[in-house]
Amino acid sequence: MRTRAAVALAPGKPLEVMEVNLEGPKAGEVLVEIKATGLCHTDEFTRSGDDPEGIFPAILGHEGAGIVLEVGEGVTTLEVGDHVIPLYTPECRECEYCLSGKTNLCQKIRITQGRGQLPDGTTRFSMLDGTPIHHYMGCSTFANHTVIPEIALAKVRKDAPFDKICYIGCGVTTGIGAVINTAKVEIGARCVVFGLGGIGLNVIQGLRMAGADQIVGVDLNDSKEEVGRYFGMTDFVNPTKVEGDMVAHLVELTKGGADYTFDATGNTKVMRTALEAAHKGWGESIIIGVAAAGAEISTRPFQLVTGRVWRGTAFGGAKGRTDVPKIVDWYMNGKIEIDPMITHKLTLDQINEGFELMHKGDCIRAVVEF
Ligand code: NAD
Ligand code: DAO
Ligand code: ZN
Ligand code: ZN
Asked: Boundaries of each Alcohol dehydrogenase-like N-terminal domain copy (predicted)?
């Protein structure tokens, strides 16, 4: 078949919206009509050419929602008409990682996914002249139709709006999951969140849901205070306005250090501040932000010797096929909010405007609707 897609032809270039060929699903694969997709910083990281592992040409996008149009041979858990959210972290439920009970990093299709291919080592997308187009994070949601392995699709309820639940495919789950699955925050905790963007605001609403007593938000941009407080932030700190040492300021504000801190900036200096603002003896700091290629983190080892813990989280530690449908229920039942975070809606033809919006302070999430 043919479908319309925004194709990343070369690093650093705007995406080009065009017709592409799409082969039908092979064994274990599913053809999905994408109804909406969010634009995430990881797409921009690859589009811009900053990602040294970026492969071109490719159809980017990993934060989508859509409908199953066709299933390949052997697919048993999905049928035509099901509503689905693609998962860049699949859940096969049979690999060593899935069975460990210790991680969400399913490795079943890891190697081919990293090469921009489906599990049989080929692509389903190609240009009209036959040149293969790579898949991206196993999802490629910047296309009206895409083919995705069955193990990388979460089946969700049919009454949930695509233009909101697509955000659960990355930002919402990453932020809330970092609180619930990775940090396992307890009622009454004191917490600090660095970076009040599309991820950090979801950390904040996760902390409110977990029953944290103090939720300090830190951002360079004062305009983030209002939206942070809306989602449950109790204190706001702009580091440019703090006189003296930022760690000392946060330790005093949290009465001895935070039980949990979260980096949602991707800045390695912020990651160090986050670790050192955690409470002596038990404070845990969770790295969510993806730092620039080749960047390294540092602190004095004595920070860890004296009981602080550094952890990282991918996709909020969520096992997608199991957890994503529950998060969709939380949204539909009013337990979490998504609508105020979808600040911009675009058509596929406007997708490059979405990447420009991302660099402006007033955009939390831009969503393309097909
Ligand atoms: P965003 O740009 O929407 O938000 C970042 C926020 O951090 C902005 O509000 C910005 O003003 C603030 N900020 C920047 N530098 C700061 C500093 N030095 N001190 C305080 N605040 C600062 O980005 P986002 O979409 O929220 O993503 C945040 C990070 O999470 C990115 O690095 C992204 O790649 C990463 N991410 C990780 C995962 C994962 O699974 N671990 C998933 C998705 C995104
Ligand atoms: O299993 O080695 C692996 C790869 C897991 C990829 C997880 C990526 C999470 C961070 C990227 C940001 C997502 C938008
Ligand atoms: Zn993302
Ligand atoms: Zn697995």
From this structure: 27-123
What pLDDT sits at residue 360?
Answer: 82
Q: Strand (E) positions, 189-250?
A: 190-194, 214-218, 235-237
What's the pLDDT tens digit per position in 103-144? 999 999 999 999 999 999 999 999 999 999 999 999 999 999
User: In this structure, what CATH number is given to the domain that contains residue 194?
Assistant: 3.40.50.720
The beta-strand segments (E) located in 210-364 are 214-218, 235-237, 260-263, 284-287, 309-312, 342-346
Residue 42 is a catalytic residue = yes
Report which protein residue has its CA nearest ligand 1's atom 27.
199
Within this chain, do residues 30 and 100 fall inside the same structural domain, yes or no?
yes
**191 in catalytic set:** no
How far does the centroid of ligand 3 lie from the alpha carbon of residue 198, in Å?
A: 9
Q: By residue range, what is the domain housing residue 233?
A: 175-313
What is the rounded CA–CA span in Å between residue 2 and residue 59? 14
Average pLDDT over residues 17-35: 98
- Domain assignment present for residue 21? The answer is yes
Any catalytic annotation for residue 134?
Answer: no
Is the pLDDT assigned to residue 361 strictly greater than 80? no
Same structural domain, 161 and 15: yes
Distance, CA 264 to ligand 3 centroid (Å)?
A: 12
Domain annotation covers residue 246: yes
110 lines ligand 2 (CB under 6 A): yes
Mean pLDDT within 55-61: 98
The reply to whether 344 belongs to the active site is: no
Annotated catalytic residue: which of 37, 41, 173, 191? 41
**Probe residue for ligand 2, chosen from 315, 358, 365 as the CB with the greatest number of ligand atoms within 8 Å:** 315
Q: What angle do CA 241, 198, 125 make, to 5 degrees?
A: 140
Residue 357: its H or E element: helix 351-358
Q: What is the pLDDT of residue 362?
A: 84
Q: Smallest Cα–Cα separation from 179: which of 284, 81, 99?
A: 284
CATH assignment at residue 106: 3.90.180.10
Same domain, 256 and 290: yes
Which numbered atom of ligand 2 lies nearest the CA of 107?
Answer: 1
- Number of compact structural domains in the chain: 2
Residue 77, in any domain of the structure: yes
